[in-house]
Amino acid sequence: MAKGDPGVSTRGRRAVPRSRKGATGDPELVQLLTPEGERIESVTGPDGTEYRVDFTDEEYRSFYRDLVLVRKLDAEATALQRQGELGLWASLLGQEAAQVGSGRALRTQDMAFPTYREHGVLYCRGIDPIMPLGLFRGVDQGGWDPNEFKFNMYTIVIGAQTLHATGYAMGITMDGKTGTDEGEAVIAYFGDGATSQGDVNEAFVWASVFNAPMVFFCQNNQYAISEPLERQTRIPLYRRAAGFGFPGIRVDGNDVLASYAVTRHALDNARHGQGPSLIEAYTYRMGAHTTSDDPTRYRIASEVEAWQAKDPIARMKTFLIKQKIAGDDFFAEVDEQAKRESVHLRERVLEMPNPEPNSMFDHVYPNGSPLVDQQRAQFTQYLESFEGSAH
Amino acid sequence: MATETLTLGKALNAGMRKALENDPKVVIMGEDVGKLGGVFRITDGLQKDFGDQRVIDTPLAESGIIGTAVGLAIRGYRPVCEIQFDGFVYPAYDQIVSQVAKMHYRSRGKLKIPMVIRIPFGGGIGAVEHHSESPEAYFSHTPGLKVATCANPQDAYVMIQQAIASDDPIVFLEPKRRYWEKGPVEVDQPLPEAYPLQAARVARPGTDATLIAYGPMVRTCLDAATAAAEDGRELEVIDLRTLAPLDLGQVYESVRRTGRAIVVHEAPSNIGLGAEVAARITEECFYSLESPVLRVTGYDIPYPASRVEEEYLPDLDRVLDAVDRTFGW
Q1: Residue B188 and which of A4, A54, A79, B173 are 20 to 30 A apart at CA?
Q2: pLDDT tens for residues A299-348?
């Protein structure tokens, strides 16, 4: 079975019976925009939910703009790492639609718990894209205020944040903030590799038995560094939800419209008190795991090419052109904006000051610690001992 | 001032009850803490009086308890998590050391995790394996965590309330074999006037040698001091109370007077709290020492089968033996 096929094969046997029908091709995959840029009016999910979007031309264009911008900023960050300006970068290349679609589906009052690759969601939450670069440059460990932007710190320990998200969602219930259109919901991001983690499975259990208002958003990008999906699962990931007692659905993660529709529906269910759900956004990590990785050691070029044909931005552009929603002027203007913002990003990264050495002693404890205070004082004295010397 | 006689366990229960009354954001969560009142009954009656949204029976997964409590803390709650036994905390170890301990630091102070992680610890109750361990060094070694332990009902009552009121994440170790020991508790002393949480205290004054202990071993050292007094030796006993950060000012003052120091704990000696205390006494009191700082601890073996735990655990005789050795130097 070819990599990139939405079914999961185990030992050469197709684990999931599939029938092809209609334009979506795959009844297990919610898709509203095909790789060829064809719009599908609506799709009925396995539980009878009808997924559709109805955007204005301006809104369609803004989705495209976000996709292009996050890809360009991401490429700039990769370049900055290559030039030694960042210690590391985890690229989102290929996953723009899953992130922009789900990120824009969040309402203002919703809270997001990201991994370390959710630069597109971060962008949609209105956070300055410079913020995660501080972490990867090594000048801080994430600079934004999670409560101000309703977007938590990046979490590097795989899957740990899904429990934080679940606890936060339990708090929403305890605060009585579900059951209305103004209700709050939580989205937890994680990847296919994380589904093997105990914490993620514990989060599923907790969310289920406490009926937490949350959405588990799994970007299945087919790889956990080098390990393919088959090393994590024998069944499609979205089906795991059934065992935990809540709905699971698979969406074309390279389709920004379907990603939006499915996420918005799941979040609205959660905010109305209908409990958690799992979304598996089926996508592909076009680049390396991080800039330290070499994917040529574990996957073949033809597989990457096959996914290239499903590119999330190309299909959106085709759609906009075919439907005469946007023309050359618009695309040129978006490219120009992306270029401008990436240059601006680069300039600001280069100007990021190193932290004062003494600041490493800050914020260890809300109430401080005599031990830390003592070591800070000793360190300061030590530094001062060099003042006036040749060093 | 009203004084009641309570067991250490009941004093913890009364302290948590007060915290639940005083702050609607305090929630208690753990395995069996609700209807059952905990396997040691430390949360007895709290769910009945405060409801199952405040006293939450969780699924059986320690990482889940701590991880969801992190989310509740970000949401503005003050979770008090119970880990049922010392030996069961390890599935939560990652959440504690990588998430709870670091969240305030990583966020440059924007996120606080005002969490208390209660763990019954130590041996001496004839339990099966994984129920008698002393994991305090793991947590004391982790920057961002504070670690405290109580040794008597009065401290249990006050310190658990102080820990819950603190914005710092605190691992609160309860000496399970002392749960049933009784003592006087001043129940209406205002919290701000109480003896501070992060401070050691002289449990018994003396002049000839200094015994340094915490949690379950404070009682053992006090008994040893009583016995030594019959032999004409006056031992000072210091209850550390806070293990991270250590508060050693009174220890230094004491050792400068006595010239002799012995650290006592149940945990194995290698890289234990005793090693840190001994190193710091040596740095601060070098010219006052009449003998090396000695340690009386559990051995560097897995906690043994309960029929030999009395041999493994420091007791009155082993403490007095060390006292003899420090005078024989």
Answers
A1: B173
A2: 999 999 999 999 999 999 999 999 999 999 999 999 999 999 999 999 99
Distances (CA, A) of B152 to B38, B159, B179, B313: 20, 10, 9, 19
Active site residue B131: yes
Tokens 């229960």 sit on residue:
B13
- Contact between B100 and A364 under an 8 Å Cβ cutoff? The reply is no
| Model pLDDT, residue A68 | 98
Here the tokens at position A268 are 């609205």
Structural element, H or E, at residue B117: strand B116-121
Cα→Cα distances B139→B79, B84, B143, B164, B314, Å? 18, 17, 8, 18, 22
Q: Look at the block and give the residue holding tokens 């508790």.
A: B185
Q: What residue spans define the domains of chain A?
A: 20-351, 365-391
User: Does residue A299 have an active-site annotation?
Assistant: no
Instruction: Tell me the pLDDT tens digit for each residue of B215-227.
Output: 999 999 999 999 9
Q: Which helix (H) or strand (E) is B86 found in, with range?
A: none
The CATH number that applies at residue B92 is 3.40.50.970
pLDDT, residue A390, reads 65
User: Which residues of chain A lie closer than 8 angstroms to B58, CB-CB?
Assistant: 206
For residue B146, the tally of other CB atoms under 10 A from its CB is: 25
Find which of A199, A211, A362, A374 to mutate to test the B interface (most B CBs within 10 Å of its CB): A199
- Number of C-alpha atoms within 13 angstroms, CB side, residue A243? 9
> What residue in A sits closest to B106 (Cα-Cα)?
A141
Of B139, B172, B193, the last residue of a domain is: B193
CB atoms under 10 Å from CB of B85, counted, come to 18
**Burial classification of residue A230, based on how many CB atoms lie within 10 Å of its CB (0-12 exposed, 13-18 middle, 19 or more buried):** middle
Given CA atoms B71, B77, B80, B84 in this order, what sign does their dihedral have? negative
Reported ipTM: 0.96
Please tell me whether residues B17 and B66 are part of one structural domain. yes
d(CA B81, CA B84): 9
Q: Looking at the partner chain, which of B64, B77, B109 has a beta carbon nearest the beta carbon of A163?
A: B64
Query: Given this model, what pLDDT does residue A20 score?
Result: 33
Select which of B104, B130, B131, B141 is catalytic: B131
Q: How many CB atoms lie within 10 A of CB A14?
A: 12
CATH of A20-351, one of 3.40.50.970, 3.30.1490.20, 1.10.260.40, 3.90.1150.10: 3.40.50.970
A276: preceding bond cis by omega (within 30 degrees): no
Angle at which helix A57-82 crosses helix A96-105, to 10 degrees, equals 130
The structure's pTM equals 0.94
Domain range for B276 is: 201-327
Q: How confident is the model at residue B20 (pLDDT cuts 50, 70, 90)?
A: very high
